[in-house]
Write a structure and sequence with these properties.
Keywords: ATP-binding, Kinase, Nucleotide-binding, Serine/threonine-protein kinase, Transferase. One of its GO terms (molecular function) is ATP binding. This is Calcium/calmodulin-dependent protein kinase cmkB. Pfam families: Pkinase (PF00069). With about 375 residues, the chain is an alpha+beta fold. The chain has 2 domains: about 80 residues, 2-Layer Sandwich (Phosphorylase Kinase, domain 1), CATH 3.30.200; about 190 residues, Transferase(Phosphotransferase) domain 1 (Transferase(Phosphotransferase), domain 1, Orthogonal Bundle). The protein is built from 12 helices and 11 strands. The strands form 4 sheets. Strands 1-2-3-5-4 form a 5-stranded antiparallel β-sheet, with helices on one face. A two-stranded antiparallel ribbon has the order 6-9. The chain is globular, with a radius of gyration of 23 Å. The N and C termini lie far apart (about 70 Å).
Length: about 375
């Protein structure tokens, strides 16, 4: 039997400024014409999303199932189609992204990070209780409802979620998500489920405490290789001295390679770092370190992108730039007594680069850029 055509109707909303964009959709601020209330509308172009309709239907199914059920989950207000677009209308989160809010604060302590992770975990536990795996938890998908200091933190963007059939022990085998936050079992394609969200919580927690992610590398391949063996450490020590042992133990329980041994979302909510007294958490203001490392990593990644672009443009004469690397990883002892691998000499291993290292790489990129274009200009002159 033929599937009934979806009802096509005129748009009841007037769209305004763009809030974000994806490969086949754009998120716009919108106002309901009759009520005057403001929302966010994910506007999906039917032509551009041809073949991806299942992703949209999945997102709608997930949002309908969890909307209005938890204060830390974005609410689906409306869904409809016009002749050219699909519209998912949600609450308008005016408070901005998680890390932007942190960077605007005058101070930021470990207890603040624990509060943010507790709110996120509460929503994740609710999703898991309803058979839903988010699969793309990352700071960019954590938004504040309003600009106020006590605003709710919201989990948004369910485009990669799946409703899981617990009775049939269904497992997910599609590679998806953002590489730096993906669990080892996703790369192994051995089937994955709810534990991948707890792994992502561990990565987010690490990031919130130091300003860089534990597996940050110069390429997705290197990042994946680090994730598969959980190659991370709480280094350099200068960035972690003010962080409590409980926080590091919480991260380790999340970043456990074997998903069956990893904490569940409810176990994570009961962990001492989340549920215990504030006095057990570090009292150092983390904001200067977090902002410095975040800005340094952003600068480094821009530099890496520049190098890749230059390499693509090169034609003879110029060899590949040598990158600083270590051939002698040494085993060191963390402050909380756990032994881990620390790549002591690498400038590109993602473990908290100094500003001097960033500046050195930028100088080399500038020199290479000048050499490239000077060489090209000379060749063009000779050809003329």
């Amino acid at each position: 039997m033929a599937q009934p055509q979806a009802q096509v109707q005129p748009c009841r909303y007037k769209t305004g400024k763009t809030l974000g964009a994806g490969s086949y959709s754009v998120v716009k601020e919108c106002v309901h014409i009759d009520t005057g209330r403001y929302y966010a509308a994910k506007v999906i172009n039917k032509r551009l999303m041809a073949g991806r309709e299942h992703m949209v239907r999945n997102e709608i199914a997930v949002l309908k199932r969890v909307s209005m059920g938890h204060q830390n989950i974005l609410t689906l207000v409306d869904y409809f189609e016009t002749m050219n677009n699909l519209y998912l209308v949600t609450d308008l989160a005016l408070g901005g992204e998680l890390f932007d809010r942190i960077c605007r604060k005058g101070s930021y302590f470990e207890s603040d990070a624990a509060d943010l992770i507790r709110a996120t975990l509460s929503a994740v536990a609710y999703l898991h209780d309803h058979g839903i795996v988010h699969r793309d938890l990352k700071p960019e998908n954590l938004l504040f409802r309003t600009p106020e200091d006590n605003a709710d933190l919201l989990i948004a963007d369910f485009g990669l979620s799946r409703i899981m059939d617990e009775e049939q022990f269904h497992v997910l085998t599609t590679t998806c998500g953002t590489p730096g936050y993906m669990a080892p079992e996703i790369f192994k394609k051995s089937g994955h489920g709810k534990p991948v969200d707890v792994w992502a919580i561990g990565v987010i927690t690490y990031f919130l405490l130091c300003g860089y992610t534990p597996f940050d590398r110069d390429s997705n391949l290197e990042e994946m290789q680090a994730i598969l063996v959980a190659d991370y450490s709480f280094t350099p020590l200068e960035y972690w001295r003010g962080v409590s042992v409980q926080a590091r133990q919480f991260i380790k329980r999340c970043l456990t390679i074997d998903p069956t041994q990893r904490m569940t979302s409810h176990e994570a909510l009961s962990h001492a770092w989340i549920a215990g007294p504030e006095s057990d958490r570090g009292e150092e203001d983390l904001l200067p370190t977090v902002k410095k490392n975040f800005n340094a990593r952003r600068t480094l990644h821009k530099a890496i992108d520049t190098v890749r672009a230059i390499n693509q443009l090169r034609s003879g004469g110029l060899g590949m730039m040598d990158g600083a690397s270590s051939t002698n990883p040494k085993r060191v002892q963390d402050e909380d007594g756990d032994s881990s691998m620390q790549d002591v000499a690498s400038a590109g291993d993602g473990k908290g680069q100094t500003e001097a290292q960033i500046e050195q790489q930028q100088r080399r990129i500038d020199e290479t850029s000048r050499g490239l274009w000077d060489n090209r200009a000379q060749q063009a002159g000779q050809a003329a």
